[in-house]
Specification:
The protein is an alpha/beta fold and 322 residues long. It has 10 helices and 12 strands. The strands form 2 sheets. Strands 1-2-3-4-5-6-7 form a 7-stranded mixed β-sheet. Bound molecules: zinc ion.
Length: 322
């Protein structure tokens, strides 16, 4: 009897452990990917999204966000891809400082960088972005994208999620001093998007580059204005940046090298595809005849290069018509 009683107790304990493991697994799913603020410089931190497409499992945590702690409050750069993620970022900020978020600077109005804005707005933060984003804000594209995201990213993006206007729409470069810390906001669009801007922290030589600089990988060019993007990278190269916090992926201590790589790749795309378009060479032939050896070892080459080349070919065809 005694041993049986022991068995029963042991079984009960095992069941409890199993139940606990199950609930932990469920909890982990609800929590999404880990978010841990990493220190970049004496006053700057960032959180790094996963390298994937947005999904309910990752809560749309596919981009980075950063924050800078000043004596007058916290300045956040980019708002992440859902309100829940923004709340998690606020929790990370509270581990570093009790000071409130006073400003959010948005590098560009792509869904994965802005769907968290409402959480910061609710805390009274002032949102700053480039005025060219207003066109997107009021576009059918933005409305449809949000509608689709409410289905694809439910429940993280849902009927409560909305597009949030900036409190201040910039028309040009601006230097903000908050709590004695200087933030150089520089307009670098139209490049990746019409409204691209970057934020430079000269005191600590940190450049928050949005999606303008891709680290050791083939950039996603999409419908970008690559001519202007190259000019923007030239502008960024004039900063004495030591560290780049990109919009996606790990931070880089090889700022110049990464900027040069992105620039050289864009230049090469334009030169090779421009020549093909001018000679009326069909795209498929031009792609096959182009020597990609300088770039084909880079991550995402297989995934992105052909589409980048095709978009550039179309762009150069149009530019040639003008
Ligand atoms: Zn992005």
């Amino acid at each position: 009897m005694r041993t049986r009683g022991m068995d029963a107790a042991r079984w009960a304990a095992r069941l409890m452990v199993a139940a606990l493991a199950l609930s932990l697994a469920a909890g982990a799913r609800a929590e999404g990917p880990a978010m841990v603020a990493q220190q970049v410089s004496p006053s700057a931190w960032y959180v790094e999204g996963v390298s994937a497409l947005g999904s309910p499992a990752n809560q749309n945590f596919i981009s980075n966000a950063a924050f800078v702690v000043t004596p007058a409050g916290v300045v956040v750069i980019d708002a992440l891809g859902s309100p829940a993620l923004a709340e998690r970022l606020l929790a990370e900020i509270r581990k570093v400082t009790p000071r409130p978020v006073t400003h959010v600077i948005v590098t560009h109005y792509h869904a994965d960088h802005i769907y968290g804005l409402q959480a910061f707005k609710a805390q009274g933060a002032r949102i700053i972005a480039h005025g060219a984003a207003r066109e997107y804000m009021n576009s059918e594209t933005a409305r449809l994208r949000l509608e689709a995201s409410r289905v694809e990213l439910a429940p993280w993006v849902n009927d409560e999620t909305r597009l949030v206007e900036a409190d201040e729409w910039l028309a040009g470069d601006k230097t903000l001093t908050i709590g004695g810390v200087e933030f150089q906001i520089r307009i670098v669009g139209p490049s990746h998007t019409p409204e691209d801007l970057v934020v430079y922290l000269p005191g600590e030589k940190v450049l928050f580059a949005g999606d303008l600089v891709f680290r050791s990988r083939i950039p996603y060019v999409g419908k970008a204005d690559s001519r202007h993007w190259i000019l923007a990278l030239e502008k960024l190269l004039t900063f004495d940046a030591g560290v780049i916090v990109p919009g996606h992926g790990p931070l880089s201590h090889e700022a110049r090298k990464d900027m040069q790589l992105t620039r050289d790749y864009l230049r090469y795309l334009r030169a090779s595809m421009g020549k093909a378009a001018a000679n009326l060479e069909p795209f498929d032939d031009a792609y096959k005849n182009t020597d990609w050896s300088e770039f084909e070892h880079l991550p995402l080459f297989r995934v992105a290069n052909r589409m980048n080349a095709y978009n550039t070919y179309l762009l150069l065809e149009q530019e040639g018509d003008k």
